[in-house]
């Protein structure tokens, strides 16, 4: 969403390097011989070999969960010479970043649907392009069609600065001029925050850290200070951006309702908040945090779907010697009498020992409240309370459609030859003012799926002809303000009629903008927050492994005092989006 919008917010190389420092190991061949040579490898994810059973009973490191974060951790640990095992419950790797052919001939990025937060250093160091990763940058990146009964003016952003200005100027010449300055300001904020994304929050006084980690923390702080001096004009406004409501920021920069509504969606996707909620403005940074194909501020599709991201990382991990096992659930993380994590107990009763570390790519709730037995492992009381009361509100709903053709928008008709136009390539928004977004939030906060939710449509087949039959298309609908905890008087996500009724309501809204859209649908895959929890283990359907509120970020993620990925149980590390820096939000 986005990955974890669903955004890709990956475990970074420095986080894994911290573990390597603890282990004090040198690169090693998978066969056990110490060496520095790389094994020959046939490029492409097609050669990834998956097993349904671990080959041995003991490893240096065991990674629970084969999502993209867990796979990155496994790749770096294997490259450092550790015998590394990845255990994935589902019959496929990827977690939320998967490609599934639910309807024959149509390959859905079933959960996550855009990439942009996978760190460039990871892509380069793991050589992911050689392993099959291909970004398909979108230009333009955003299309907001004129509302039904409107004056026909639509908004298109993300092509070129000149085209952005011309599109915005239809509504306001002042906004067209301000937009470039707004983008520059967000770019400065991006540079200020970048160092925090490549390492745990810097704490040179961390009592749990090694001397190497404390030295790295000091270096990160020095980089932050240098960035602050370089962009000193943005430091105080950045503080405001981090704490203010998005509506407050956008109202001050712009006057046009459609522009503000389009930008405001970045502040609420994946979060059960309103643009009027204090602290919602910092998520506007996601507008510029994406980076793909060497271009900053860009979000991209991935050729073959989002599963190609995970398979490229899996390929790199396997090349380094990691063992990848699917269809194998972990039932318990076992600790010895001293509280040190030493083994995992599988669902079939088999026990696998970890000599040096166990990493959990699962969310904190599952890791600490379900995989650790409180009768056997005593977590610090304050840590336990924080985990028990972590905010998992999110309100996301996703469905994937197989279409017989492209949607034809009333005020932006499709090309006569049926080919995709600029209105089909980026994210299509269906909000025309921030008031609509706030009202949707108010309904959802009462446990009622919004009558007019925030809707984002993407059509990756407009750029990728490998995921749908000729002339047909894959359409992804991401919906905000569908609360996990529905008022029982209203309905339940466990009721298929209720779930599909909500999806039908969304389709009805799209139909208002693109008459005939409903008749294009050949089949669909509908995913409620409950489905996301049951299928890929997102607690309460939260795509970030925990809400991205200011009280659950940086030094407080997942718990204050435990933001360095090292957890209270010795040799247990949190390697998913529940750790810093969080899901892409």
Structure in words:
32% of the residues lie in helices and 16% in strands. It is an alpha/beta fold and 585 residues long. Helix 1 crosses helix 2 (68-79), helix 2 (68-79) runs parallel beside helix 11 (307-319) and helix 8 (246-253) runs antiparallel to helix 9. It starts with 12 loop residues before the first helix and ends in an 11-residue tail after the last strand.
Task: List the main descriptive attributes of the protein structure presented here.
single chain; 585 residues; alpha/beta; 7-stranded mixed β-sheet; 17 helices; 20 strands; 32% helix; 16% strand
Could you write a compact summary of the structure shown?
The protein is an alpha/beta fold. The chain contains 17 helices and 20 strands.
Structural class: alpha/beta
Average pLDDT figure:
90
Helix content: 25-40%
Which geometry do the CA atoms define? globular
Q: How much β-strand is present in the residues?
A: 15-25%
Please report the distance between the alpha carbons of the first and last residues.
7 Å
Low-confidence stretches: 1-12, 20-44
Which radius of gyration do the C-alpha atoms yield? 23 Å
Total beta-strand segments: 20
The total of helices stands at 17
Could you give a short account of the major beta sheet? 7 strands, mixed
């Amino acid at each position: 969403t986005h990955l974890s919008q669903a955004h890709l917010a990956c475990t970074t190389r420095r986080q894994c390097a911290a573990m390597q420092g603890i282990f004090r190991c040198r690169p090693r061949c998978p066969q056990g011989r110490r060496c520095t040579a790389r094994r020959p490898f046939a490029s492409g994810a097609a050669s990834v070999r998956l097993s349904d059973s671990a080959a041995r009973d003991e490893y240096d490191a065991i990674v629970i969960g084969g999502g993209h974060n867990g796979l990155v951790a496994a790749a770096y640990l294997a490259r450092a010479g550790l015998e590394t095992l990845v255990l994935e419950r589902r019959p496929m790797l990827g977690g939320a970043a998967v490609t599934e052919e639910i309807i024959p001939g149509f390959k859905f990025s079933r959960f996550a649907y855009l990439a942009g937060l996978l760190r460039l250093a990871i892509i380069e160091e793991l050589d992911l392009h050689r392993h099959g990763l291909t970004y398909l940058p979108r230009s333009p990146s955003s299309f907001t069609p004129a509302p039904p009964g409107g004056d026909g003016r639509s908004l298109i952003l993300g092509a070129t600065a000149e085209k952005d200005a011309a599109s915005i100027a239809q509504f306001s010449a002042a906004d067209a001029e301000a937009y470039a300055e707004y983008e520059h300001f967000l770019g400065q904020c991006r540079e200020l925050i970048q160092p925090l994304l490549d390492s745990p929050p810097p704490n040179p006084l961390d009592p749990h850290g090694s001397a190497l980690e404390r030295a790295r923390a000091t270096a990160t702080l020095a980089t932050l200070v240098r960035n602050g001096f370089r962009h000193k004009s943005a430091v105080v406004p950045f503080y405001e951006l981090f704490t203010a409501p998005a509506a407050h920021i956008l109202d001050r920069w712009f006057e046009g309702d459609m522009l503000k509504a389009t930008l405001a969606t970045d502040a609420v996707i994946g979060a059960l908040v309103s643009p009027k909620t204090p602290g919602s403005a910092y998520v506007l940074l996601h507008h510029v945090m994406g980076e793909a194909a060497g271009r900053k501020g860009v979000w991209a599709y991935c050729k073959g779907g989002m599963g190609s991201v995970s398979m490229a990382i899996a390929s790199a991990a396997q090349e380094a010697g990691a063992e990848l096992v699917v269809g194998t659930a972990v039932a318990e993380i076992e600790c010895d009498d001293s509280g040190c994590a030493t083994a995992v107990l599988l669902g079939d009763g088999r026990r696998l020992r970890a000599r040096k570390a166990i990493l959990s790519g699962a969310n904190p709730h599952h890791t600490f409240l379900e995989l650790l037995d409180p009768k056997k492992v005593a977590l610090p009381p304050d840590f336990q309370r924080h985990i028990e009361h972590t905010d998992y509100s999110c309100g996301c709903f996703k469905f994937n459609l197989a279409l017989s053709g492209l949607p034809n928008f009333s005020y932006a008709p499709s090309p006569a030859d049926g080919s995709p136009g600029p209105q089909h390539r980026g994210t299509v928004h269906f909000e025309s003012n921030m008031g609509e977004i706030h009202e949707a939030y108010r309904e959802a906060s009462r446990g009622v799926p919004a009558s007019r939710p925030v809707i984002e449509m993407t059509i990756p087949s407009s750029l990728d002809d490998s995921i749908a039959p000729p002339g047909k298309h894959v359409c992804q609908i991401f919906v905000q303000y569908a609360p996990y905890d529905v008022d029982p008087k209203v309905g339940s996500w466990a009721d298929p009629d209720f779930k599909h009724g909500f999806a039908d309501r969304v389709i009805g809204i799209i139909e208002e903008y693109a008459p005939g859209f409903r008749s294009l649908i050949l089949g669909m895959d509908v995913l409620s927050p409950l489905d996301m929890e049951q299928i890929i283990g997102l607690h309460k359907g939260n795509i970030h492994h925990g809400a991205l509120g200011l009280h659950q970020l940086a030094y407080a993620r997942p718990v204050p005092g435990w933001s360095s990925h090292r957890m209270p149980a010795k040799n247990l590390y949190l390697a998913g989006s529940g750790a810093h820096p969080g899901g892409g939000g």
